[in-house]
UniProtKB/TrEMBL annotation:
Residues 71-204 form the AAA+ ATPase domain. ATP binds at L40, R41, G82, K85, T86, T87, E148, D149, F150, R191, Y201, R238. DNA binds at R311, R330, R335. Keywords: ATP-binding, Cytoplasm, DNA damage, DNA recombination, DNA repair, DNA-binding, Helicase, Hydrolase, Nucleotide-binding. The lineage of its organism: Bacteria, Bacillati, Actinomycetota, Actinomycetes, Kitasatosporales. This is Holliday junction branch migration complex subunit RuvB. Residues 1-10 have a biased composition (Low complexity). It comes from Streptantibioticus parmotrematis. Transmembrane segments: none annotated.
Length: 364
């Protein structure tokens, strides 16, 4: 089965990531957009942009395995959503000339689910397990033996009459992906022969991603236009590709089809993505923190009520990027805006920060 036709879409590494990416373009990607995302994935390690250290290390692991005629070591990829973990898993399978099986941690809730998948693997096959930290504990413990000894014990029966039947497995390569490596238990983490951490992309690397994707989409984008899109993409290739498609639509309808800096800026303003990559929710959080609460400190629940969102949405969707950009800080007393946040919204910090100014959410 083609992995892109799987009911589970590996393009979305976790729920909050999907929300964060979707809200940058105003609506969820439809079937056509998902097909385009699949088409934009690099098929070879040499085509993969960025992550130089991980690519170099992984290239050595795969070349050595091919020279020995052996199955590649198990691989663990960690990092934020949208940085290419799923793409690298598919490249590993392609480089090893092996088929790939795609599943996810939340889909494996019982040891029997994992046993069914493992028992159907072919020799040398790559099993991609997305969000591996969300797998159930019984399945996790079964995976220990499968990774190390290529064997699982299937329990038949219950109580005193239960019998363990050993099931031999063909050598396979497990590629685990996680956005929260700290949640993996040490016994599982230590069984991976190679661990790679994916970093956020620099603007210059994202420009290369935009130019490559534009070529595949047959879109005319100049250097300044690509730089404008890259600068608003939060250091994430998936978001860069999505913004490129939305700017392409704008250029097709409102301009002559060529993406220049002016066209890209106008298009992204329509989609409410500002020059630092902040969207409507991000700016609403900052605006409430600055105007209503004088820059903080303020509790998360209070801040969520002020912007009309759930606590979890603010904490998991908006805050990580704001903290990474140095616009918001988490303290024991609550959330606090940094001087950069005041500057970004063009506001002047009040003289006495302890007393919030008496003004509304979106203006005096």
């Amino acid at each position: 089965m083609n992995p892109y036709d799987s009911p589970y879409d590996p393009a979305y590494d976790d729920e909050s990531a999907e929300t964060a990416a979707d809200r940058l373009v105003g609506s969820a990607a439809d079937g056509e957009d998902q097909a385009v995302e699949a088409a934009l994935r690099p098929k070879e390690l040499a085509e993969f942009v960025g992550q130089e250290r991980v690519r170099e290390q992984l290239d050595l692991v795969l070349k050595a395995a091919r020279q020995r005629g052996a199955t590649a070591d198990h691989v663990l990829l960690s990092g934020a959503p949208g940085l290419g973990k799923t793409t690298l898993s598919m490249i590993i399978a392609a480089e090893m000339g092996a088929p790939i099986r795609i599943t996810s941690g939340p889909a494996i809730q019982h040891a029997g689910d994992l046993a069914a998948i493992l028992s159907s693997l072919q020799e040398g096959e790559v099993l991609f397990l997305d969000e591996i930290h969300r797998m159930s504990r019984p399945a996790e413990e079964m995976l220990y033996m499968a990774m190390e000894d290529f064997r699982v014990d299937v329990i038949v029966g219950k109580g005193p009459g239960a019998t363990a039947i050993p099931l031999e497995l063909p050598p396979f390569t497990l590629v685990g992906a996680t956005t929260r490596a700290g949640l993996l238990p040490p016994p599982l983490r230590d069984r991976f022969g190679f661990t790679g951490h994916m970093e956020f992309y620099a603007p210059a690397e994202l420009e290369r991603v935009v130019h490559r994707s534009a070529g595949l989409l047959d879109v005319d984008v100049d250097t300044d236009g690509a730089a404008e899109i890259a600068g608003r993409s939060r250091g994430t290739p998936r978001i860069a590709n999505r913004l490129l498609r939305r700017v392409r639509d704008y250029a097709q309808v409102k301009a002559d089809g060529v993406i220049t800096r002016e066209v890209a800026a106008s298009a992204l303003d329509v989609y409410e993505v500002d020059r630092r990559g902040l969207d409507r929710l991000d700016r609403a959080v900052l605006d409430a923190l600055l105007r209503l609460f004088g820059g903080g400190p303020v509790g998360l629940s209070t801040l969520a009520v002020a912007v009309g969102e759930e606590r979890e949405t603010v904490e998991e969707v908006a805050e990580p990027f704001l903290v990474r950009e140095g616009l918001l800080a988490r303290t024991p007393r609550g959330r606090v805006a940094t001087p950069a946040a005041w500057a970004h919204l063009g506001l002047v910090p009040p003289q006495n920060v302890g007393n919030p100014p008496q003004q509304g959410l979106f203006g005096p």
